[in-house]
TrEMBL record:
It is an enzyme of class 2 (transferase). GO terms for molecular function: diaminobutyrate-2-oxoglutarate transaminase activity. This is Diaminobutyrate--2-oxoglutarate transaminase. Its cofactor is pyridoxal 5'-phosphate. PROSITE patterns: AA_TRANSFER_CLASS_3 (PS00600). It comes from Streptomyces zaomyceticus. Keywords: Aminotransferase, Pyridoxal phosphate, Transferase. It comes from the Bacteria. Belongs to the class-III pyridoxal-phosphate-dependent aminotransferase family. InterPro entries: Aminotrans_3, Aminotrans_3_PPA_site, Dat, Ectoine_EctB, PyrdxlP-dep_Trfase, PyrdxlP-dep_Trfase_major, PyrdxlP-dep_Trfase_small. Pathway: Amine and polyamine biosynthesis; ectoine biosynthesis; L-ectoine from L-aspartate 4-semialdehyde: step 1/3.
Length: 420
């Protein structure tokens, strides 16, 4: 195989083409912020399903709702049917998320995963505008299907699939040029210059914080500039909130802080709330040009996920408590990470993040990898991200206690020291 990770299922090794992350144990149970391997050893989970477990593992309120639903013979698969679980979710999503923010979106179930939501967004943008080109950003990640990969700024991920970049162009993300060029002026000039050969794009797709790309945080003013550029040049703005949505940055949507209203929004990962597959594509009602069945799929709309999603919204988003808690703990994490950088003998470390997504950048991927390995050995799950795997990414459950946060940050600090 091409994955040089330890084999964990020795007996079936020859039959299985499985990709295990670099954690050479077999996990068995999980609760809250902790996973347990089959020997019963606990691990603090600051990976959290790459942002799918904002409410922790087996969150009691969500588990109760799911168990009750199953005990009552609730429908697990109701393809394209109206169901009570679906209606409850839509009503709750409307009253807890859309209405309080005066967001006018229509809600679409594009399929089970984030990639499905991105595909639907790209298709919709092209259909609405009658144009084909999509603008995305350096180091963006939007999924692994052909369309979402075409707008993903990671050459290695594209190369294997031989995805051509037809109708996809890349702009520098915020700070990519270290402020040496005004943010969008060059692009605007090209758009206005008929001789530039630049196809007028249908849409721009952006993450407000690039998760897979290395926790690159766009400034609010940069996002506002981008929204303004889209407005001036009649391009749709798609915010891919698959990883940063559902409270990861504090607000329910990561774009709220910038005060922008995208035309299309993708959500997945933590929207189901319990690690169950679910995705949403939200769009302004006037963009609804879909014909019935035009974007279909057998596993669109997962009823058990509707149930846990509804319970998550009811429990955490009827008031602003989770938001406040997340924002107040951002400082705590930042301070701990800055201390860790200041103490590091080797130097060259830097920190960035928002809410409860943080990146610790090393000068090379090798050291970041060694830190993750040491963290695992001492009871903390964290992963690398970034174009060279040089950023250790922290995504603790938003429900982690202060003690758990401090414990994880302590293990991380000792792991960094261990590799100095
Ligand atoms: N968009 C973003 C911003 C993501 O982080 C991801 C997953 N890491 C995706 C899309 C793809 O989602 P999925 O893996 O659920 O298809």
């Amino acid at each position: 195989t091409d994955i040089a990770t330890p084999t964990v299922f020795e007996t079936v090794e020859s039959e299985v083409r499985s990709y295990c992350r670099a954690w050479p144990v077999v996990f068995e149970r999980a609760a809250g912020s902790r996973l347990y391997d089959e020997q019963g050893r606990p691990y603090l989970d600051f990976f959290a399903g790459a942002g799918s477990l904002n409410y922790g593992h087996n969150n009691p309120a969500l588990k109760r709702a799911l168990l009750d639903y199953l005990a009552d013979d609730g429908i697990t698969h109701g393809l394209d049917m109206s169901t009570t679980a679906k209606r409850d979710f839509l009503e709750t999503f409307h009253s807890t998320v859309l209405e309080p923010r005066a967001l006018p979106y229509k809600v679409m179930f594009p399929g089970p995963t984030g990639t499905n939501a991105v595909e639907a967004a790209l298709k919709l943008a092209r259909k609405v505008t009658g144009r084909q080109t999509i603008v995305s950003f350096t180091n963006a990640f939007h999924g692994m299907s052909l369309g979402s990969l075409a707008v993903t700024g990671n050459a290695a991920k594209r190369a294997g699939a031989g995805v051509p970049l037809n109708h996809a162009i890349r702009m520098p993300f915020d700070d990519y040029l270290d402020g040496r060029l005004p943010d969008f002026l060059w692009f605007e000039r090209l758009l206005e210059d008929a001789g530039s050969g630049l196809d007028h794009p249908a849409a721009v797709i952006v993450e407000t914080v690039q998760g897979e790309g290395g926790v690159n945080v766009a400034r609010a003013e940069w996002l506002r500039g981008l929204a303004e550029l889209c407005r001036r040049h009649d391009m749709l703005l798609i915010v891919d909130d698959v990883q940063m949505g559902c409270g990861r940055t504090g607000d329910f949507f990561s774009f709220e802080e910038a005060g922008i209203t995208p035309d299309i929004v993708t959500l997945s990962k933590s929207i189901g709330g319990y690690g169950l597959p679910m995705a949403l594509c939200l769009f302004r009602p006037e963009l609804d040009v879909w014909q019935p069945g035009e974007h279909n799929g057998t596993f669109r709309g997962n009823n058990p996920a509707f149930v846990t999603a509804t319970a998550a919204l009811d429990t955490y988003w009827r008031d602003g408590a989770l938001r406040e808690r997340t924002l107040s703990r951002a400082d705590r994490v930042e301070r701990a990470l800055l201390d860790l950088c200041a103490d590091d003998g080797r130097g060259g470390l830097s920190v960035r993040g928002r809410g409860l997504v943080w990146g610790l950048e090393f000068t090379d991927g090798e050291r970041a990898d060694a830190v993750c390995r040491r963290a695992f050995e001492t009871g903390l799950l964290v992963e690398t991200s970034g174009p060279r795997g040089e950023v250790v990414k922290l995504l603790p459950p938003l429900t982690a206690t202060d003690d758990e946060l401090d414990e994880g940050l302590g293990i991380l600090a000792r792991s960094v020291r261990h590799t100095a």
